[in-house]
Known about the structure:
The protein starts with 10 loop residues before the first helix and ends with a helix. Among the domains are: 14-73 and 109-268, no CATH class; 307-412, no CATH class; 427-520, no CATH class; 707-798, no CATH class; 810-855. Helix content is 61%, strand content 8%. Helix 2 (38-51) crosses helix 10 (198-213). The strands form three sheets. Strands 1-7-2-5 form a four-stranded parallel beta sheet, sandwiched between helices. It has 42 helices and eleven strands. By secondary structure, it is α/β, with parallel strands linked by helices.
Amino acid sequence: MIDIQNATWPERFSQALLAKQQLAKQNIFFAPVRHHSPACAYALKHYIEQLKPTHILIEGPESFNFLLPSLLHQDTAPPVAIFAQARPTAKSNDSEHESPNLASAYFPFCQYSPEWIALQQGKTIGATLKFIDLSWAKQSELDQSKQLDIAQRSLMSERYLAHSQYIQRLAQRLHCRNHDELWDHLFELQSAKQLTQAEDFFNEVFSWCALARLDYEDDVLLQDGSLHREDCMWQHIQDTIAPEHRILVVTGGFHTLALIELLSKKKSQLKQHKTTQNNWQEQAWLIRYSFDRLDALNGYASGMPSPAFYQQFWQQLDQENIDSNAPIRLEQNVLGYLSQLCHYLDAEKCLDINTFLAIKHTAEIAWQLANLRGHYRPSRYDLLDALQSALVKGELEDGQQHLFQQIYLFLGGQTLGQVPADQHRPALVDNVYQQINKFRFNLTDTLKRQRKLDVYRKPLHQHISQFLHLLDYVDCGFAQRLSGPDYVLGAGLDLLFEEWRYAWTPSVEARLIELSEQGDQLEKIAIHKLVQQQKHNQEQGLGQSATETAKLLALACRLGLKQQLEVLNQQLAQYLYSDQNLGSIIAAAQQLYYLWHGRQLLQLPEQQLQQSLILALQQACYLLEQLYDSHEEKIEENLKHLKHLHELIINVQQQIAAKLQDEALRSTADQLLTLMYQQIDLEQLRQNHLSKLKGAVDVLRFLDQRIQQQTLSNELLLSFATGSDLEEAVQYLQGMLHIAPEIFVQSHIAIDALFQLVSQWSDELFIRILPDLRFAFSQFNPKQTRQIAERIAELSGLSQEVILDQVFSHLNEQQVLEGVALNQQLHHLLTHDHLIDWFKQDMTVTPTQEAQYDA
Length: 855
């Protein structure tokens, strides 16, 4: 205990102590607290029982008073929070700083929050309960005038206590790492019996907070808005004072000194400063909250770290006070909690030792540390230090990151609160919540879970998938798709199942509340977002882009926005005619092809999709004159465009027409292929020195049986003939390899021609061309590279043994043995999967190679 009466204090603090005593004689009492502190909550519970106040005034925005019935409802179970939103009624006149659209904040409660205990105990004794802080709308207006970040925050910030120089110096003097450990050492670890002496306890908390307050000048607190808030609280206290009233003021301890000073002076501290003008409006709702959001380690501005740890701490305080065998019971409780923690770590594969030994060693060290530091029971820091000593062998390193991550997750907890079923909230939140329950998602906590959907065979799973895609599109954070077919990006089209990871968190509910201004149904909000995307495309000059319109069409299909499909289909048909960008038309065709793959799942009209796809491919063929652009960057783009266009036409021919057994569609695909070649002028490609495109077109013509192998061979010989331009020859090779590298491997003519050409080059010329050759040959796989090397060896008069020696000469004995072991392992796996015969057929080995391997 601190001897407050006889200690030497700063003058301002001494005067406040005297003023506090005078106010107590007027039946005005103060309970300065640290938010979410079990010790403060337990002491406050007894303080209210002892004082029996008629009025309990609590730090919290005055605009939240209408939610008191919901907070006091029997079905409300912490952790819960009041979620508030404020926005300006009109745009700011300040041209340099536009007002933000929305300012959001949380005011959370857990079972051991002093504010929650004040409400529950006040209800028990029949006291009048009231929130007395400045409304969130006025706080937002103040913050905006000071240009502070108010996007989303806590209304219980304690950053001034954390950064107080006085507290930092005291922590150093008492060998505590930070203000959290210091708080535990001085306050949280007082026994239940000590905490029942509530007046003494709150006098000590007042001293702690008041001395921290002296570190800050009024100008700083004015800029922060603290003075405005305290002026509002003072005014509420003033309005409550009456001879028959017995008032208890429960606020964060940082404000208590200022409130005492204001009440003793009976005047505002802001008469010379501009106050708020009610230019903002607000709304507030009671929502479910969670321990992981309450955890200070996750960025919460005013919470105690590890709320699940302090929850069990809180539950044991009452038991300690009434249990005659409190010390024995305390040891059993600590051991039981530690047992749960170690078994959890074992389940997460974090322990390198037996679970029993982990519990035993950690318990012994934790109690020894508690005794050394003068604690009647292990603190959170005692426990963390004991876990580190018992479970970590050697130096701390990155390898222990998973261990401590799981420790903090366990101490933090995943508990999710409850609010009354008839609680006022936007219709969108109710609709989504009912739908999620209907689809049987687990919403009992904030743990992330996975859900697998059989989207092709089960209609219910199709509806769930569409619903999850809607939630994901509006960005509410409920679910994340892990795998499955994606008909927008064209990924995983052969997958039959979707896998999602989901969790209901306070952020999900808060986001849905924000979205509720746009409508009460997800479909309406998604349509609104889709329309906004169209407007954005128009602003960026992409309003008539076939690609962007096709993407929006695919998105509308995935989300099931049927009323938008007809509009987007009409727009796409129009833009396929008007868009003159070859890449855009081909990309639109690619998107339509993806949609065709998902037509059954997405319930799309097959005939309309086919017509749009054929139209897109026709228009792309008519734009092939853009291939003659000789700019380097355009050549690379056009090479890709040509390949994609050809692949799409072949897919229509071999995939769509073949699956549907539609001869008319097959004939249309043949006509498209003919049209593509008709639109390409080979002579113009030569004249424009577009050898890379020429090589690509020649290979495509050969693959489509438009020319014979001899014709392709002649083109190859012509490209590599003596006197040909070296760079163009290499570009021709690159174009050919871009389309079908296997053609080069299979044709000895191509390899022989290139060999003869390279043989004539000087060393300087070879070095200049080498980067382009390396780039071209990078498209070969190891098997193809080996085949080319074998042919070059024959042409050079070298044996296979020399080639292998040149390639593998850098390998040492150990590496060769490792390779043999891997080869044996691969052989075993292939045999187990009955693939070894197929593998042997594909990977034929010559007798010379076999001898090499045996050696």
